[in-house]
């Protein structure tokens, strides 16, 4: 397999990082990844990342939860064994619905929340015993790292990154 | 400075005139004599193939308060037909008063809700809202006249709205004597009602007066002393407000059903007024912005207001359902009659309002992008406002007109009348000061607010 090279440019300030990202994007280099110790507001916009769709999935999961609650209680309380419990009208679902609303609500929230979190874990590839993908441990503390692919243009790229205020620029072999 | 456009002024005056005509028509047509009501009822019976005869019995049995004043409860069936007719006659007489009262209260509560929202913005030192302060101040200008009108209608209507105002009900000698109402006479008496109402209105208006004064003084002030005063009175007002609002809702709304009580009623009314108030802030802001008067307001502010509309619609639903479900579940006869009458006679408004105040906003305003689109917010805002009008309608009407309700000329006339007055007062108040509260220390943050 061919070994490709990437440049790791390290910054120590999120404002400088933001302006560097804008400059690198303006020069039409492809930013592979950015590692930061905390969320930097506006970084996703500067990088041109597509907006997340996780809220839409949560909405759908919520609807599924609501359906589960309705179908479950309709079967148990109305169809399977419509017993008279304390005079509650179990003749039809609608007649007894107010009593079911707390469960309908909770299951909607339960499904929306948990399935959304699981979706997030799957999409972000996060699970126990997963090997950390961190290229430099300092990026979890106080450094910011920008990773850019190199295609025989090291010189120009290094010059540009130095201009943007990178404190350290490393050329790294990345075995695929 | 904003100038009240002559078009809008004419529009508000037209609304008021049309409204007055409608209200006048309502009062003219409601004076039916007992004989007329009897002929009307017998016509209805023949129309419906006698179905109403059964209903007549049923009505006097399941009967609550509203009629207690006007009807001897003994139900010695010899006089039964007469009693029913008299009862219906009273309901017909009550209708224009109730229609007027519902509309007056609705617009008053918008101003009051905005005042509470305004105080919260100060007390919480919100950084996003100072650009909207003058809009809120303009809307709260309606509070003093609006609340006095509500009180005036309440007193003028007397036992047309509040059966406990009928002196016979607390007189043990009278055949209309009602022990339950008499037992509450310590709170529910006309003098107390008026004194309390004046204290509420006085306190609210006092806060509104000083908040406005400090806000204007801050415009050209060298230091922040006015702002600090605003902060302190806002905190004090909120304490005063939450007590008086609760008592106001017992007095002005819950007491139309003096046999019924609910502990979370004050909160429930509060949620209704708060969400309508926030909606009106959004609508007035969008109107002014569309005319180019609020260039410092951007879609991020709109987004925040829309989030409040969304969240408080759900809060309202939560309280509505909590009240309904607790009563439905335990089904104690003395409190469940409240919902029985609403469910039997008001099915469409009762369930329709849940759709308008909950289902509609939750689906329309959930998407973050939609909350930034003006016409979308206006559309959902109008639905929310109509929904909350119906909410107040559902609180007052079943106790006063019973199944004789209709949203017809008296109701629409009253809404037009107060909508015209509201627009006139609010937009006149908006011309009195610059639309940007420029001395506010949080103003810069608010202008650059970005979500």
From TrEMBL, chain A:
Q: Which PANTHER family match?
A: LIPOPROTEIN-RELATED, QUINOL:CYTOCHROME C OXIDOREDUCTASE MEMBRANE PROTEIN
By what name is this protein known? Answer: DUF3341 domain-containing protein
Pfam families (alphabetical): ActD (PF11821)
The membrane-spanning stretches of this chain are 54-77, 97-122
Recorded source organism is Snuella sedimenti
Keywords linked to the UniProt accession: Membrane, Transmembrane, Transmembrane helix
TrEMBL record, chain B:
Q: Which UniProt keywords apply?
A: Membrane, Transmembrane, Transmembrane helix
Top-level taxonomic group = Bacteria
Its transmembrane ranges are 98-120, 141-165, 193-210, 231-253, 265-288, 308-328, 348-366, 373-392, 412-430
Q: Does the keyword Membrane apply?
A: yes
Q: Does the keyword DNA repair apply?
A: no
| Protein name stated in the entry | Quinol:cytochrome C oxidoreductase
- Report the source organism: Snuella sedimenti
Lineage, opening ranks: Bacteria, Pseudomonadati, Bacteroidota, Flavobacteriia, Flavobacteriales
């Amino acid at each position: 397999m061919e070994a490709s090279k990437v440049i790791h440019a390290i910054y120590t300030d999120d404002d400088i990082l933001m302006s560097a990202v804008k400059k690198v994007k303006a020069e039409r280099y492809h930013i592979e990844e950015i590692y930061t110790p905390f969320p930097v507001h506006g970084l996703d916009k500067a990088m041109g990342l597509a907006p997340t769709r996780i809220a839409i999935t949560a909405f759908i999961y919520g609807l599924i939860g609501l359906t589960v609650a309705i179908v479950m209680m309709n079967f148990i309380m109305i169809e399977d064994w419509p017993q008279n419990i304390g005079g509650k009208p179990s003749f039809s679902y609608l007649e007894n619905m107010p009593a079911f609303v707390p469960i309908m609500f909770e299951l909607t929230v339960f499904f929306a929340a948990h399935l959304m979190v699981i979706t997030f874990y799957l999409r972000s590839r996060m699970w126990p015993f997963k090997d950390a993908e961190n290229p430099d441990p300092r990026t979890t503390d106080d450094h910011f790292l920008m990773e850019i692919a190199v295609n025989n243009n090291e010189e120009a790229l290094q010059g540009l990154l130095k201009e943007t205020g990178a404190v350290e620029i490393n050329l790294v072999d990345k075995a695929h | 400075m904003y100038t009240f456009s002559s078009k809008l002024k004419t529009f508000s005056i037209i609304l008021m005139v049309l409204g007055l005509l409608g209200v006048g028509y309502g009062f003219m047509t409601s004076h039916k004599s007992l004989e007329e009501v009897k002929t009307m009822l017998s016509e209805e019976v023949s129309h419906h193939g006698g179905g109403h005869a059964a209903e007549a019995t049923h009505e006097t049995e399941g009967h609550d308060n509203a009629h207690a004043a006007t009807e001897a409860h003994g139900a010695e069936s010899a006089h039964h037909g007469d009693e029913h007719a008299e009862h219906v006659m009273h309901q017909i007489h009550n209708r224009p008063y109730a229609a007027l009262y519902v509309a007056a209260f609705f617009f008053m509560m918008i101003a009051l809700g905005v005042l509470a929202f305004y105080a919260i913005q100060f007390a919480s030192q919100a950084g996003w809202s100072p650009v909207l302060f003058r809009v809120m101040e303009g809307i709260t200008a309606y509070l003093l006249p609006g609340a006095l009108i509500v009180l005036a209608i309440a007193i003028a209507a007397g036992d047309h709205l509040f059966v406990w105002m009928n002196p016979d009900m607390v007189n043990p000698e009278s055949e209309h004597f009602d022990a339950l109402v008499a037992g509450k006479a310590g709170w529910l008496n006309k003098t107390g009602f008026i004194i309390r109402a004046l204290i509420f209105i006085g306190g609210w208006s006092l806060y509104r007066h000083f908040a406005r004064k400090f806000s204007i003084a801050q415009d050209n002030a060298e230091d922040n002393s006015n702002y600090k005063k605003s902060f302190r009175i806002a905190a004090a007002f909120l304490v005063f407000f939450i007590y008086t609002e609760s008592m106001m809702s017992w007095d002005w709304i819950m007491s139309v059903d003096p046999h019924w009580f609910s502990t979370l009623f004050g909160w429930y009314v509060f949620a209704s007024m708060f969400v309508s108030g926030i909606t009106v802030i959004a609508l007035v802001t969008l109107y002014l912005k569309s005319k180019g008067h609020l260039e410092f307001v951007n879609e991020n502010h709109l987004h925040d207001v829309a989030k409040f509309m969304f969240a408080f619609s759900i809060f309202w639903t939560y309280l509505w359902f909590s009240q309904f479900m607790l009563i439905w579940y335990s089904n104690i006869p003395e409190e469940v009659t409240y919902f029985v009458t609403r469910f039997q006679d008001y099915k469409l408004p009762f369930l329709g309002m849940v759709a308008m105040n909950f289902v509609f906003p939750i689906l329309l305003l959930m998407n973050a992008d939609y909350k930034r689109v003006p016409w979308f917010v206006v559309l959902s805002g109008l639905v929310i406002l109509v929904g909350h009008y119906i909410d107040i309608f559902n609180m007052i009407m079943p106790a006063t007109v019973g199944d004789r309700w209709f949203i017809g000329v008296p109701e629409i006339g009253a809404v037009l009348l107060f909508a015209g007055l509201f627009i006139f007062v609010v937009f006149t108040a908006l011309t009195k000061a610059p639309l940007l509260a420029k001395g506010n220390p949080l103003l810069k943050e608010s202008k650059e607010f970005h979500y």
